[in-house]
């Protein structure tokens, strides 16, 4: 019997799984299966069934990375949350439109909060908090509380949370427990998003535990943290927002593990997105300022990643100038849909030519299908009619429009049906082109060939040129995004007929496209690219060529995400704030805020010394509780201006395996 560890990554298109030998850390078995977004337990169980050999393997650890939190935030599918703002200025929020960032329309202002010195701005309005909490009982899924300057003093948050818990059945989240950052808007947003994810991630973890129990797997369950560390699954249930970018973080950790390179750009190209991350000095580069998810700027310390809506299943289309565009929408490849729904193949061969003669439109080979049964009654008559039509199987969009007697999906609220996950779309994708070239062809090649041929006719080129242009556009897009990611300067590709308005724009475009007959230049990457994901070997060689660097495709790169999910270390951080006690403009002492405790010291040296000792002990205990074996602690002093410092202890250790 071999002791093994099991890693699983649930991506937007595929779920990957690997078994690693616990002693040698060699990959023993790997599997890829399509992600079942409507119920992740289905694809996870399939991975377990294909990987586990009860007579040969003894599973000692299970670790998972997931896009569940990121997708729920981006798609607005979290729970309903009420946000309590203590000491925030309503006029300031209104004037600068900060409310758009909060992640909920249900926010309430209360007197209280603290100032820059950690002193109360005024008494906390406990009576109104009690009244609002009672009104919200059974009306919201969770309550988030954020106090002004709560990292310097969170007593009002604690009191408000106690009142809310006594007068409402909803769980309560405090912003100061999630972030020590002073940005009050980011902290409130993070608290709201965390609260909205509580039930979703709790159900996911419970489902995972149940699946493991059904397969008689008794092993610790870990989850990839947003900063590339592992955390105990129990913590995920109270801090779900900290799994944002869990997937891209796992990719980078897996890339580092497989390649053994200490500095590289990691590119993970999948079906839905292409994710960029940097490994530097053998560590994943972190965004200390707080990561962005969708339109929300959070206070979550996460891997510094850039996600592009570009992958193997990105929608191919032609814009108003008949120029090729790719993504950002993801659709199901026609090759896959035709394989699972034979009537699509019949339609493509028999009906499509006549429909194209009547109306030369890609709508004729865009198909809609039921993705998930509606969870509630559909009130829009036309929307309900569409769902009823599709109960018998997928239909071409033009057939749906004809049946309803309308001209556009907006007339039957089609986008809302897609947003809710009730309806899925299928059309031509790069994956269909790969079926034609034979580079990736697990599904219906004939159907893919038909739609590729028709699309090429619409673009007024032959299929071979179409394949080349798609490859080039994908490579140029990724290369441009890499330049923006590293420089933090936006780069937008201009139409061919538009002259570059600035020298910087011209230099980048000339580097990528080499158009000028007299002057040239080359932007090059000062590190290799590590390619991750099944299509990496197909699409990334040209990216490396454009940026004049080496492409490394390590063995097992197609499942590096799952390897990263289990190859990472347990990493925990604890922050404290030290800031001066002022009398006039002169410091007369120093305050130290450590979690719920606020202490005073005569000198900064004494405050820092106490913080180092206390934080080191605290983070060591928490890391051990989180599953780390013999963690090592690093301590750092981060200047924040005006003699204020963020004091941080970081514990790092391998997962403990009994």
Question: What does the model show?
Answer:
The chain is of the alpha/beta class. Helix content is 37%, strand content 26%. It contains 21 helices and 31 strands. Strand 9 and strand 10 (230-232) form a beta hairpin. Helix 2 crosses helix 6 and helix 9 (334-340) crosses helix 10 (342-350). The chain is globular. The model has no long low-confidence stretch (mean pLDDT 90).
Largest sheet strand order: 3-2-1-4-9-10
How is the main sheet built? 6 strands, mixed
Helix content: 25-40%
* Strands, total number: 31
Mean of all residue-level pLDDT scores: 90
Strand content: 25-35%
Radius of gyration: 27 Å
Shape: globular
The rounded distance between the terminal residues' Cα atoms is 15 Å
Low-confidence segments, given as residue ranges, are: none
How many H/I helical runs? 21
In terms of structural class, how would the helical and strand content be classed?
A: alpha/beta
């Amino acid at each position: 019997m071999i002791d093994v560890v099991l890693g699983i990554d649930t991506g937007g298109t595929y779920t990957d799984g690997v078994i690693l030998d616990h002693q040698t850390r060699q990959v023993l078995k790997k599997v890829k299966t399509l992600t079942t977004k409507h119920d992740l337990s289905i694809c996870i169980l399939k991975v377990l069934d294909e990987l586990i050999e009860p007579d040969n393997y003894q599973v000692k650890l299970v670790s998972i990375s997931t896009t569940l939190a990121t997708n729920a935030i981006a798609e607005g599918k979290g729970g309903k949350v009420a946000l309590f703002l203590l000491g925030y200025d309503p006029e300031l929020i209104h004037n600068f439109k900060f409310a758009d960032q909060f992640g909920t329309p249900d926010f309430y202002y209360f007197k209280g909060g603290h100032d820059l010195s950690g002193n109360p701005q005024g008494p906390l309005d406990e009576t109104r908090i009690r009244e609002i909490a009672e009104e919200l009982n059974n009306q919201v899924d969770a309550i988030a509380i954020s106090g002004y300057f709560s990292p310097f003093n969170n007593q009002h948050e604690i009191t408000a949370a106690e009142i809310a818990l006594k007068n409402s059945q909803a769980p309560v989240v405090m912003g100061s427990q999630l972030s020590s950052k002073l940005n009050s808007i980011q902290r409130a947003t993070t608290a709201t998003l965390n609260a909205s994810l509580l039930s979703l991630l709790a159900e996911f973890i419970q489902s995972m535990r149940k699946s493991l129990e059904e397969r008689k797997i008794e092993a610790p369950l870990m989850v990839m943290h947003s900063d590339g560390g592992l955390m105990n699954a129990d913590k995920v249930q109270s801090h779900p927002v900290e799994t944002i970018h869990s997937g891209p973080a796992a990719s980078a950790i897996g890339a580092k593990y497989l390649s053994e390179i200490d500095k590289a750009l990691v590119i993970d190209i999948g079906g839905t997105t292409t994710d960029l991350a940097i490994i530097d000095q053998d560590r994943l580069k972190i965004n200390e300022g707080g990561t962005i998810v969708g339109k929300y700027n959070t206070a979550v310390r996460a891997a510094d990643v850039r996600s592009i809506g570009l992958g193997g299943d990105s929608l191919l289309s032609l814009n108003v100038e008949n120029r090729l565009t790719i993504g950002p929408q993801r659709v199901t490849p026609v090759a896959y849909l035709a394989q699972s729904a034979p009537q699509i193949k019949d339609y493509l061969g028999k009906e499509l030519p006549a429909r194209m003669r009547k109306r030369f439109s890609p709508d004729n080979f865009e198909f809609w299908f039921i993705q998930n049964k509606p969870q509630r009654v559909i009130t829009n008559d036309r929307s309900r009619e569409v769902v009823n039509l599709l109960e018998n199987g997928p239909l071409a969009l033009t057939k749906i429009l004809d049946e309803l007697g309308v001209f556009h999906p907006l007339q039957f609220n089609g986008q809302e049906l897609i947003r809710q996950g009730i309806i899925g779309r299928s059309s031509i994708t790069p994956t269909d082109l790969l079926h034609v070239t034979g580079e990736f062809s697990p599904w219906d090649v004939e159907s893919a060939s038909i739609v590729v041929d028709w699309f090429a006719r619409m673009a007024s080129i032959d299929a071979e040129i179409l394949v080349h242009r798609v490859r080039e556009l994908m490579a140029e897009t990724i290369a441009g995004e890499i330049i923006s990611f590293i420089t933090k300067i936006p780069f937008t590709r201009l139409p061919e007929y538009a002259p570059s308005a600035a020298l910087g724009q011209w230099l980048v475009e000339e580097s990528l496209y080499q158009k000028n007959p007299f002057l040239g230049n080359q932007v090059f990457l000062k590190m290799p690219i590590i390619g991750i994901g099944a299509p990496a070997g197909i699409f990334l060689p040209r990216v490396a060529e454009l940026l004049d660097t080496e492409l490394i495709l390590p063995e097992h790169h197609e499942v590096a995400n799952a390897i990263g999910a289990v190859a990472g270390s347990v990493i925990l951080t604890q922050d404290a704030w030290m800031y001066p006690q002022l009398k006039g403009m002169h410091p007369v002492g120093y305050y130290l805020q450590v979690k719920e405790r606020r202490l005073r010291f005569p000198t900064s040296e004494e405050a820092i010394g106490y913080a180092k000792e206390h934080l080191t002990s605290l983070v060591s205990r928490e890391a051990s509780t989180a599953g780390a074996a013999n963690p090592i602690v690093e301590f750092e002093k981060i200047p924040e201006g005006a003699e204020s410092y963020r004091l941080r202890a970081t514990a790092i250790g391998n997962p403990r395996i009994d």
